[in-house]
Amino acid sequence: MIMPLILVLGQSLTMNALQPPVDDNLPAEEKEQLERTQTILKFLPLMIGFFSLQVPAGLTIYCFTSNFFTLAQSLAVRKYYELNPPKIELPEYWDALDDMSNMSADDRRAAAEAGIAAGPKWSDIIDEAKFHYVVDRSPLREESE
Q1: How far apart are CA 127 and CA 101, in angstroms?
Q2: pTM
């Protein structure tokens, strides 16, 4: 009976420690959904504890050690990147992505090669096609109609 209790406490600790911080700039709808998700996830450790009562003790020990190593590894990686933040070198065209209409052709090509959709959108192509029309011309030869 003690192993399921330890598993529930360990799972709760892991979930609280690994939960990302809440962004204050989120829209109200996303905040509400995040709160609902967190409320549901609070019951997950209890459910895991209930399941651990139904299975052999070896599986409960495995879940506990897996939980422990996951927590330790995640905290170690998080601390490493706090102490050694990665240097991110942005390409030259990065600032121009905000206003793609002023991007040079080379910048658009470089962005497209990087996988960023810098070309025209399908809706733009359709809108442009609506303004083209066929000129009705008389045939050069009478029999070519």
Answers
A1: 16
A2: 0.57
